[in-house]
Specification:
Blueprint (H helix, E strand, L loop, with lengths): L6 H6 L11 E3 L6 E3 L3 E3 L6 E3 H5 L6 H9 L1
Antiparallel strand pairs: 1-2, 3-4
Length: 71
């Protein structure tokens, strides 16, 4: 923002309340918390897989991998 701001006007403005919303999700493969928009769904059940795991070739969450081993 490159607007010139009047200090007198800025002094009358109140502080913004802190944001309470978050867009983070836990990766179901590694447990890392990442932004929800930076990941892909598990091919088996659709739960969140982070981008790092996806780049490493992980396409299924821990639970789906465990189910596949048991079957």
């Amino acid at each position: 923002d490159q607007a010139v701001r009047d200090p007198a006007l800025m002094a009358t403005m109140t502080e913004r309340p802190p944001l309470r919303e978050r867009d983070a999700m836990l990766c179901r493969a590694c447990g890392r918390e990442e932004r929800a928009s930076e990941g892909y769904p598990c091919e088996g059940c659709g739960t969140f897989i982070c981008l790092v795991c996806t780049i490493r070739g992980v396409t299924h969450c821990r639970e789906c991998v465990a189910k596949a081993k048991d079957a």
